[in-house]
Amino acid sequence: MQSVVIGKNQAGQRLDKFLHKFLPEAGSGFLYKMLRKKNITLNGKKAEGREILALEDMVCFFFSDETFEKFSGRKVSRQESAERRNVGKPVPTLQGITVLYEDDDFLFVNKPAGILTQKAVPEDYSLNEWICGYLLKQDSAFEEELTAFHPSVCNRLDRNTSGIVLCGKSLRGLQYLSGCIRDRRVRKFYRTICVGCFKEKTELRGYLAKDTYRNVVKLTSFPENGPGNNIEKSVEAGAQVRAVCTPLAVGKKFTLLEVELVTGKSHQIRAQLAGAGHPLIGDFKYGNDEVNQEFKRKYGLSHQLLHACRVEFPKAEPENPQRAAQVFRGESLSGKTVSAPLPALFDRLQADLFS
């Protein structure tokens, strides 16, 4: 017999979902058969799979060692966990990541430009791997938790966009952050320098359609999904993309902007500002090539100057004494603001252009 005691990163999910993670090589049919035959039990009793796991619940597996090893893939998992330990070491492409905030459920970091938030191909190192390496360095016992739970980033930044990335360390932290982002309860602010004089606070609205072959988005004034072409909608049917742009400093040729991203779509800020006639400096995909070449020669700027500088969290909802089980309300983040300092090159450009 093998058993596992449910920890904080497994609690709160359905038993069948936990089993799929814990026994990744087992199919649904096999798992439900084992539940029916009581070869898998929950707290010593027969279970159906729909039960919500609680902290310190015990799941027992009445398998042979060979069967358990076959369906759990434990040898593979341990090998993968060993690889994750190396991710936190000074890999050249993952240098410069700094922790901005951390508690038992959340980890917020400042990502430099040039680092992937998530893998593009299996061989990549990304922020997700760095997080696993970081947590393993903090506590080697975390390796066992990786068999059933993987901490993960909750907001994605383009490779060459720097700034705040929100990560869930625990299952409830991951679920809370995902809900905040989905329901637009967390406010996200960016800094950039754009071409031209942007003199008034403005809300930009539009629709984005994605050209999947060229990996660019197209800004339109109406929803677009023409049949027979290579354009696919990157937003829900009829949904607009919105960004609020506030000028912080206006020069003769450029503007320092703070942008609140009301919606959150790939390349949204870059495409919307370019569509408004104010492309980001350094943006070779959507921007002004002559301007970009000038900044590349003078400053070595080879990517869009865009930095996720600040996030603001909502106040936690008050407890409801009539509810038997309280939903996790992210109390540690209630009303919290987290900021990320500007990269050195951004500071230099800001000083040269607006001082």
List keywords for this structure.
355 residues; alpha+beta; 4-stranded antiparallel sheet; elongated
Polypeptide structure, described:
- Helix content is 27%, strand content 25%.
- The protein is built from ten helices and 16 strands.
- Strands 5, 6, 7, 8, 9, 10, 11, 12, 13, 14, 15 and 16 form a twelve-stranded mixed β-sheet that branches. Strands 1-4-2-3 form a four-stranded antiparallel β-sheet.
- It is elongated, with a radius of gyration of 24 Å.
- The termini are far apart.
- The relative contact order is 0.11.
H-E order: EHHEEEHHEEHHEEHEEEEEEHHEEH
How much is the radius of gyration in Å? 24 Å
Number of helices: 10
- What gap, in angstroms, lies between the N and C termini? 70 Å
As residue ranges, the low-confidence spans are: 76-92, 226-238
Structural class of the helices, strands and pairings?
alpha+beta
Q: Helix share of residues?
A: 25-40%
Strand content: 15-25%
**What is the global morphology?**
elongated
Largest sheet: 12 strands, mixed
Count every beta strand, where a strand is a DSSP E run of 2 or more residues: 16
Average pLDDT rating: 83
> What's the quaternary structure here?
single chain
